[in-house]
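DATA SHEET
Item: assembly model
Revision: 1
Owner: S.N.
Input lines:
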Amino acid sequence: MSWKPPSDPVNTKNKPIKVSQLCELCHCRKAILKRPKNLQKICKECFFHVFETEIHNTIVTNNLFYPGERVAVGASGGKDSTVLAHIMKLLNERYNYGIDITLLSVDEGIVGYRDDSLATVKRNQKQYGLPLEIVSFKELYNWTMDEIVATAGIRNSCTYCGVFRRQSLDRGAQKLKIHHVITGHNADDMAETVLMNILRGDVARLEKSTAIITQSSGSPIKRSKPFKYSYQKEIVLYAHYKKLDYFSTECTYAPEAFRGTARELMKNLEAVRPSCIIDIIHSGENLVLKEKEQRFKKLGPGEDPLTVNSGFIDGNRCERCNYLSSNKICKACMLLEGLEKNRAAITLEKDSSVDGAARVMRTLEHLSF
Amino acid sequence: MDGVKCKRCKENDATVKSRKEPFCNKCFIKFVSLKQRKLMMTDEFYRDHFKVLYGKDLVNDGISKIVLPFDYSSSSFSALDVLVSLLKEQRVQHRGRIGFKIELVTIFKNEKELESFKESWELLKISDVYGADVWSQLNAHFIDAESFFNDTDGLEQIVLHNEDFNSMGMDYVVPAESTQYKIESLLASCPNRNTRNDMWIFIVTHLVKKFTYQQQDSQIILWAHSMTKLADHIIGLIVKGRGAQIAASLDSGKFDHDYDDRFKNLYPLKNTLLSELDAYCIITGLDKYIVNYSVRRDLMIEQEEVDTKTNDPNKNVRLVKNMTINELARKYFDDIEGEYSNIIATVLRTGDKLKPPAIENKDCSKCSICLNTIYSNPSEWLRNIAINKGHPVETDEERELYKLWQESQVGIQTGKYLKLKEKTWSEGHEILLCYGCIINLNGINTREIIWPKHEEEELQSILSEYELSD
Ligand code: SF4
Ligand SMILES: [Zn+2]
Ligand SMILES: [Zn+2]
Ligand SMILES: [Zn+2]
Ligand SMILES: [Zn+2]
């Protein structure tokens, strides 16, 4: 996470270029960076070329877009989504995808992190000339992440944050009548997830962990990840050499402990084998479970294998908030219920152990959507 | 101070602690052997091979041949020991009759290694731990790893395309000045320990399977891989882009299709941890015969506290950067063992739930290097997301630099590769490689490898064995 691009060389003007300094791809320009995938020394031009083309290829081979499609870029102001917004605009113009791009941001309510990064998104909006929509946890759920952490503790922060953000993006997109949200999830995230699912035997998620497009059945909103094969380091390098304006502070809430161990393992693996991130994704795409067939076999008469398999009843909606959900009550509402109980119970005490999170609780209000 | 009692018999003092349970020597040996025996006996096919058969027209008098790859590690010795105790038991219960005999296969790298294996084997023999009637059921075979290139039906040179990741091959003729192509040359061309290790494991596995193929009446290879090793292996396959192979590599139900359906691969130690096999060897005294491996005393309840940290050469910290993928996986398991228990077992259980993916290209093809099934088109996959073509030359200055490069050492080297590529592409034949092998080959400087042609004839070309003198 803390990886920083190399600083630009200074005082290099007028010095003759040695052959050993030449780019290993074009052999005619000075190499300035090591390509994260294979440590090839390459020049800026070649780097831009391969990075952009690989993303374009990913978009084309997976048929991510159709002409005229309206697409929302999940924009956080961080490097991934800033580069994503930049690249999408660039490729859309270069290759005529014919898509219409909007920036969509979620304000989770994390002081010192999200408020600053949102300022970045607002600058990006002007720089790229793209429309921007912001939805906030506070406005949708009447909870900020800081309040959630103060109530539920720091341990599960990412669980709450993840569930609410996913729903918020969907709600934001729906409000804009956009049916496709793209996010800046990169290859590192995906490889880490594959490893984690194997290590903790999360069979339910194993097969889907490398899907580039995900859509719950019955949901009008499709999500995709054009950076599926892009290394985090490549994204950082790209932002650096293109001098993109992004916000680089990390969220104050630490990631889940187990993910931390998988991340450490990945770091070691990558040091030994730079290609391992795409290698792991290649593996992930080829993991198929045995059980599936057996699950299909036990169908009763007239049952639809798809709905039985996922336990998902098409178009089922949450009783409370009307959001698409396989259960009577959606996950967000379930989490909210727990939170509300705690808010009532712990009164207005401050939890001083949680950095930046201890904000005075607001009054108990009912949800309004 | 009184020691802890064994939790099984509640009588003897505990000597080993495993999976949070204290055991005495006797109960621990039983615990480990039962795990292995259970996996040998649950499936009907395997049960019929191990058990004593009665009847008139039985092939070989009802005695089946079990091939046991034997690398002189704690895993090999404990697998052997459990098999031997089963044999002894059969002799007693069936008045001298037995159900199987064991062909031990050892692949050696060089003379020095062979010497240490032989020495250990002789020592074990003299020690008389097993008795003459058991020894007559054990056959030790030693095969020189060089047979991989020697006892074949010709070699070919496989070249990988630097831009589109396709590959082609040509017959390879060993240059006149050297008599044969050697493993040493292969390993020297590998860019790192990891690729070398991959190659070595493939060579050993292939030789063992080829040996078994050539044993007319042998239907089982009993691999002494511990749960720990198999978990490393699974993670290793994932990290090397070989996830599709996991299911086939753990399959013990089907005959091995790559070797003409002659035998099945059994992994009866897959529920036993490596540390348990180490403890087993310590308790039984077999640890003194172990070669090239040092047992860990982690599970032993020692009388005097031994400082395991200084005594254990395995703990010698290798720099993370010099570790192989499998070693890194092992390190990970070791490091988090305390905090998240059962990760190893979880990984194995997940591996067992996988099946091979559907084959995308119509005619099922095999990788020419590692023989694994190729499920999708890895070259095409890589072409899209690992582009190897740069930005074109644009200015005069760039043109000049390019010329400079062409005439330089690297330029000439690359030129040589390009010529070889050109020749192979015009004269050679198409070669299909799996994703993992493409990545390995791409890491080799010259993107070429000399490899035996895996055709029907290759399996027939008889492996020469090193004969043990009696
Ligand atoms: S680290 Fe966790 S809490 Fe912080 S923004 Fe990410 S998901 Fe939310
Ligand atoms: Zn270049
Ligand atoms: Zn709901
Ligand atoms: Zn006991
Ligand atoms: Zn292969």
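QC remark: Chain A touches chain B through 56 residues (CB under 8 Å).
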